[in-house]
Specification:
The strands form four sheets. A five-stranded parallel β-sheet has the order 2-3-6-1-7, with helices on one face. It is α/β, with parallel strands linked by helices. The radius of gyration is 23 Å and the shape is globular. The longest helix is centred in the middle third of the chain and has 18 residues. It is built from 13 helices and eleven strands. α7 packs parallel to α9 and α8 crosses α9. Helices cover 47% and strands 15% of the residues. It binds adenine. Adenine binds next to α6.
Length: 321
């Protein structure tokens, strides 16, 4: 079974993000009734919440083609023109990490999004002149972990903005159960719940943990994923009951031990735990902020009382707290 069969194909099968789905269903239906390209969509939120999956679902529901790329992959204007030139009327162009598009490419995208053309400068010096290049109407779906880092002109050109949120326990449990059935694995409801609880609101993590739990179940219990097996496997992965992994705890522990819990700047934290700044900012920090273990202040990040209590309970911070 490949990774793709894990992805739902229709909005109906897409679990969670109910508010977004409700609105998208209307925009999709309206665009189809008018036989027009749907307006451009910006999906933003932490990694692993299903932005790419949702983009594929939208294209599928619109019954149009989709081309997938990412901001850093489009290095020059020519790369973008090649992508745009490949689109048929109504198609979706999905650009992941759209906040990482090079400036010149981003600027070329403005007219493409707004009026479906690009102007290409041909020749050099006094003979340089723009050549007008019309495009088929298309739907750009951009994905970003942080809408705040997108330039205002870029953001303003998206008619539909969708803020993806962390999934609640019941949605995650449903996703885990669905994935298990794709794997044709037998899973106890309590085991699905255990995986859900430890996946920090993120389907990608839930599905990854499920794979490891399944490995354990195949070795220890002839494939039945029991709650007991799930616990053993998840403990071995060092994922605790709040879904924190070793890096999360190292981050909080370092802040406590070296900086008295803060305030401390991101650069100092990054250097101390040997992770890059962007990874911390996009992957670790948002969830720790969401569950209230970290706080952001004008002078830097601080570990909250809740954060202290959790590390103490996990017995990972040995100091006097
Ligand atoms: N797999 C990953 N994310 C999903 C979602 N939101 N719904 C259904 N299956 C998924």
């Amino acid at each position: 079974l490949n990774e793709l069969s894990l992805r739902p194909k229709y909005l109906q099968q897409y679990i969670g993000q109910d508010k977004i789905k409700e609105q998208l269903a209307i925009y999709i239906q309206a665009a189809r009734a008018r036989s027009e390209a749907m307006d451009h969509v910006l999906l933003y939120g932490p990694p692993g919440l299903g932005k790419t999956t949702l983009a594929m679902v939208i294209a599928n529901e619109l019954e149009v083609g989709i081309k997938t790329t990412s901001g850093p992959a489009i290095e020059r204007q020519g790369d973008l023109i090649a992508l745009l030139n490949d689109l048929k009327a109504g198609d979706v162009l999905f650009i992941d990490e759209i906040h990482r598009l090079p400036r010149v490419v981003e600027e070329m995208l403005y007219s493409a999004m707004e009026d479906f053309y690009v102007d290409i400068i041909v020749g050099q010096g006094p003979t340089a002149h723009p050549v007008h290049f019309p495009l088929p109407p298309f739907t750009l779906i951009g994905a970003t972990t942080r809408a705040g880092v997108l330039s205002a002109p870029m953001r303003d050109r998206f008619g539909i903005m969708a803020h993806m949120e962390y999934y609640d326990e019941s949605a995650l449990k449903e996703i885990v159960t669905r994935t298990a059935s794709v794997f044709q694995a037998d899973i106890e409801p309590q085991a699905a719940r255990e995986v859900a609880l430890r996946s920090r609101g993120t389907p990608r993590i839930a599905n990854r943990l499920l794979k490891r739990v399944r490995d354990y179940s195949e070795v220890y219990s002839e494939g039945v994923i029991t709650a007991a097996i799930a616990k053993v496997a998840l403990d071995a992965l060092q994922v605790d009951d709040k879904g924190l992994d070793a890096v999360d705890r190292k981050l909080l522990g370092t802040m406590i031990e070296l900086y008295d819990g803060g305030p401390v700047g991101l650069a100092a934290i990054a250097a101390n735990i040997s992770e890059d700044r962007e990874t911390i900012e996009d992957m670790y920090e948002p969830y720790l902020l969401q569950i209230g273990f970290l706080k952001r202040t004008a002078r830097g990040r601080m570990v909250s009382d809740l954060g202290y209590q959790h590390l103490k309970k996990e017995n990972l911070y040995k100091g006097d707290i």
